[in-house]
Design goal:
It contains 12 helices and 7 strands. By secondary structure, the protein is α/β, with parallel strands linked by helices. The strands form 2 sheets. Strands 5-4-6-7 form a 4-stranded parallel sheet. Strand 1 (4-9), helix 1 and strand 2 form a beta-alpha-beta unit.
Length: 248
């Protein structure tokens, strides 16, 4: 197969499925051959990212992802994307394993925020405990001269319940809980824009988009970027030249 990219997924599986739907349904098609070529690695056995980040005695998820990257690199994809925000904890280590361009979903999302909302100096961030604990998004937002607002102590338990209890454990999206989190971030913490720092939250946005709040959805953004790049590559552009604009 030529002109394809690799998705390092399975963290979690239904969030990865959501990304695949976005890729498939945002393409303009008249025939089967108009769809994108990609390899979806749904490695559901990757250990919990937050557990390891908070306690290094827990299973190290880098081991699984390292194997996935090395296996896929042999196939020669045009680029890698990894639809798990928290897994970007090991982005530098994973990207260094191969010469294949590896897009940084979190960084691309933060730059998109700056581009779309140049007058907003603050953005709300809701994410896994692991991402919050290691300042993954806070560092990226600070690097572009903006402020990250995490909300008060009541926010994280609500986000964790939505991500783990509802979506990961039960496979359902609690729309009321999702909207309550957004409302609190907006009304009580002054966040005009809220970044969805976990792909389960991106799934919540897909399933429950009927709210008035402005969000930055990294999974949705990386889907659009992947489509843009792969169509350019299919049309003849060199892959490394195509991805250059997104390698911040």
């Amino acid at each position: 197969m030529r002109n394809f990219f690799t998705i390092l997924g399975g963290m979690g599986t239904i969030a990865t499925e959501s990304l695949a739907r976005q890729l498939n349904h945002r393409i303009k098609i008249t025939k089967d051959q108009d769809y994108l070529n990609y390899v979806l690695v749904n490695d559901a056995q990757v250990p919990d990212r937050t557990a390891y980040i908070k306690d290094h005695s827990k299973p190290n998820f880098f081991i699984n992802l390292r194997e996935d990257v090395l296996q896929q690199a042999q196939l020669g994809p045009d680029f890698f994307i990894m639809p798990c925000n928290t897994a970007h904890y090991f982005y530098d280590d994973l990207a260094s394993l191969t010469d294949v361009p590896f897009l940084h979903m979190m960084r691309i999302a933060v730059h998109r925020f700056v581009e779309e909302y140049p007058n907003e100096q603050k953005i709300g961030v809701i994410a896994t405990e692991g991402s919050i604990y290691d300042h993954l998004y806070v560092d990226e937002i600070t690097a572009v001269g903006r402020q990250a607002e995490l909300g008060g102590p009541e926010i994280q338990p609500m986000v964790t319940e939505l991500i783990y209890t509802n979506i990961k454990q039960k496979g359902v999206v609690d729309a009321e809980l999702y909207h309550s989190i957004l409302r609190k971030m907006h009304d009580e913490y002054g966040c005009n824009v809220i970044l969805l720092g976990c792909t389960e939250l991106s799934l919540a946005q897909e399933k429950a988009p009927d709210h008035p709040y402005k969000v930055i959805d990294p999974q949705s953004i990386i889907a659009d970027v992947a489509i843009e790049l792969e169509l350019k590559i299919r049309a003849g552009m060199d892959p490394k030249e195509a991805v250059k604009k997104y390698l911040y």
